[in-house]
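Session log. Operator J.P. requested a structure for one protein chain; no other inputs attached. Running the standard single-chain path with token output.
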Amino acid sequence: MINCRAYQHGICLIIFFLCIVHSSAEEKKNNKVIKRILDVIDECWESEEYDVEVKCHVCDSHENSALQVCSRTGYIEQVKCKSGTTSYKSCPRDSEREMVIFWKFEGVMIFVSVLAGAVVMLRMRKLDRENIERIQRQISAL
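Structure written below.
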């Protein structure tokens, strides 16, 4: 009876893993087809005039997995070519935005370090005061 259950569990696990492998293979196959289609559409902005529909922005997780152009710089913009096709174009990183983010980070770090230094100084003064009081009590007890 115990051996039958062990075999049943083993068979269930094997079937489960086979289903996972099969579904991930199908998903990869579908993603490759989507990427091929998008890569063909992607080239219209190189040879035609275009208008920017969605400004340059950071690729989200869905765009990273679906669009190959996201892997180039991590930024993407949606353009509409004169022929009427909508396409995606990789765009350079926005250096001004990154500089603002960097200086915000630096400002927060400076604030945190000044705050931590102030807390350390206050704690040191308190401990020094307690130490002096303890020494005075010991001297007065003699």
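Operator note: The first strand starts at residue 50 and ends at 58.
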